[in-house]
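In practice, a research group might receive sequence data for several interacting partners and want a quick structural hypothesis before committing to experiments. The following worked case mirrors that situation: the sequences arrive first, and a predicted assembly follows.
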Amino acid sequence: MPITVKNLSYTYMKGTPYERAALKNVSLEVEDGVFLGIIGATGSGKSTFIKHLNGLIKLTEGNGGIVVDGIDLTAKKPDLKLVRQKIGMVFQYPESQLFAETVLDDVCYGPRNMKKSREECEALAKEAMTLAGLDFENFKGRSPFELSGGEKRRAAIAGVIACRPEYLILDEPSAGLDPKGKDDIYALIGRIRAVDKVTVVVVSHDVDEICEYADRIAAFDKGEIFAEFDAEDIGEYGRVLREKGLGIPLTARVAEELKRRGIEADFKVREKDFTESVLRYYAAKRAVKKEGGGL
Amino acid sequence: MKDMTFGQYYPADSPVHRLDPRTKLLFVFFYIIAVFFIESFLGYAAVALYIAVIIIASKIPFKTVLKSVRAVIFILLLTMLLNLLFYREGEVVFAFWIVRVTGAGLKFSLTMALRLILLVAGTAMLTFTTTPTALTDALESVLKPLNIFRINVRDFALIMSIALRFIPSVREEADRIISAQKARGADFDTGNIVRRARAMLPVLIPLFVSSLRRADELALALDSRCYNLSDKRTKMKVLRYKTADLGAAFYALIFVGLIIWDRLFLTGIAGRII
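A structural hypothesis for the assembly, expressed as tokens:
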């Protein structure tokens, strides 16, 4: 079942001079199996929004409603443990949550909290670490603090997916990583989606990255969703996205520039698809020319 | 954790906010000592009124000040209880099993509680109306004489301002880690004390790791900006006393009058009767 958010509002430090509206009347539906990207400039409310989804920020009355997989978070005492089991949450710089002596121990933390037996914990950890691209035998006994930056982050994500969530929410999962590290993270997300049919929500301000991987995109500004569209259609939102300090991916910019020079075709947004659509365009053009020459 | 009010700067434009931080610091220092000279209940009522005038002048809502008192309510109740139970002088007014409560004990524990409340309210006024940076500057300036004992006051002030500066950062980091571990099913709210303490380990270890890393980075940043290479440092905001500070000094004198009044008339005559 999907995650449904209706008219959600939230104000930080209400009743003090530091009061600030973080979310204003946000409605969103995250459908099953979808890869949703949430984009927005710093301070646009994206992180506050996702914290609501698993009850880390409590809903107050009259501030809208959230239903996760049929569990109403506005209920008097929602089963937060169950919700947190369903929703895996990877925060910004998740490697800062590593604490145990060994990677295996750390990855087992979630399953242990779910009262799984020792064998079950280890089986779940093995599966999660393999999905995260960490060789189980090699990494299980190592200290999480001696890993490289990218490995640390993947170990932390393994710790979240070891709980076998049905939804995975990641806040800036690739921030501060090198290009290879970024690719590793998104390859990892791809593997989880393929294996478990997990619904994925990624928060980022990197529009290039989001468009490369996400199906749907919701764009935040000043606590509101101002646009929601299929990633493929991002080219149509160029002007409004630039106004909000976000911009559009390189491929869409190239397509825009080509259009300005009179070259118009159905150019795709994802890098590989884009290259192919451009090649297809020129192949078709050449074919037309050849035909013309034959006459 | 975000609702902690004790000691948090409360921005407003008021005469109290505008006072020189040294004035406020010295005033609070003097106030802390002076409160202990008051002994009668009427005297405490007068002190409460005295503080109320400052609160009104500072434009800070009474509710906010009361919240900071609420933060110490546990210590307050504990000291009251201990004073009640272990004060042995005077006539017994209540006895049960091994418990003996004396009239003088009752009066003493009430006095201590009142003192504590007034102390917290008074000192909270300093931090409510003074930014941490201003406070550190004031401390550095006031402690300057210690330089003759070869105590490096400047370093001391820097350490203090760094500590104050990082309280919100560490708190934020702690919030973040708590959220992350909660999302992995951590349970901090059930079980006995030992269980709960153990449950905090996955928060404390990463918090220490990140704090140490932060300290390292900060030391590097200080070094790379040549901190400590020159003896004389100049200030961006130089502290200067103004006429308003003179007014504050006069207000402080009123307290001296209060003590004399309390000592001579209330404790001397009426105080004995109560």
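Before designing any experiment, note the following. The mean pLDDT of chain B is 82. The CA atoms of residues 66 and 121 of chain B lie 8 Å apart.
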